[in-house]
Amino acid sequence: MAVKITSVAKQLPQYSRETKDIIPFVKLWMQDQDSRFQRKVIKLFEAAAVDKRYSIMDPEEVFTATTFEEKNNIYAREVVKLAEKSLKKSLEKVSLKATDIDYIITVSCTGIMIPSMDAYLINSLKMKQDIVRLPVTEMGCAAGVSGIIYAKNFLKSNPNKRAAVVAVEAPTATFQLNDYSMTNIVSAAIFGDGASSVILSSYEEDIGPKIIDEAMYHFYNSTNMMGFKLVNTGLQMILDKEVPKKISDHFPAIVHPFLEKNNITIDDVNHLIFHPGGKKIVQTVEDLFGVLGKNINDTKEVLRLYGNMSSATVLYVLERFMDRNPVKGERGLMLSFGPGFSAQRILLEW
After folding, report:
1. For the chain, what is the radius of gyration of the CA atoms?
2. How does pLDDT run across 172-192, given as a tens digit for each residue?
């Protein structure tokens, strides 16, 4: 019994700014800092390969000394709206109703909500009262792929069922106003907010790429490389500058054995659906895949248009491929990295 991805749909928040329009806010924020440091930060924003990003709040709010409670309240209010809109879009693409979903996975790590956003979706969309819920938190950028893996395993055991994976992230709500570290600055330069929903199915008649295989890869002794630290002012970004090198060192072990297990090589993969973590990570992976004769142009374009939206971003890349309707028999490799440190992989076949 095949499990297929039948639909993907994104939803962007109401506020947006091009990077050039954010620079004045950054300059005002840094007005008391050393002038040489200010120039370094501006160059970092300009060279981040992100032309535009979207946000659940206006830049004035982002650069205002709001408390953790105030920003988290905005997060809780806005992510539910984005989740509902993206889920409706993904259902409409395949002419389904909310009551056609048997399993819902909601993904987010950039705020705190109890109950999680899936409970609100069940109420607002009047989903099944016996729907199975799974909120996925604390997995960061990898969680969009993780959610699909969990949905696939549920559907593999339950024929004639459908699942929805809804990823919503608001990294701008984690910006630390009094933190002038490079980690906080790099985070602000590359991240944006966004949502995406994926519909999966174990119905034989439903159409979409089949999930051939999936796997997770865990790096030992790397828990300090990526994530958030909970401080009085909110979620403080942890992002080690050694992440690109760590990916490069482990890349052969992440990619080749996974493909070999499925009796193929990288030559047999037509589409690379890679999470755009940031300019340096993208460059690292582009170099590694480039040597193998592959490109990640769609990954770079998603980063340019929207920034890194944590777990939702790889789903934006997936949507670009889904909308193109690849030729039957073509294969796609989904790949994302996240806290732990870990890599998540999915092999698709259209």
Report:
1. 20
2. 999 999 999 999 999 999 999
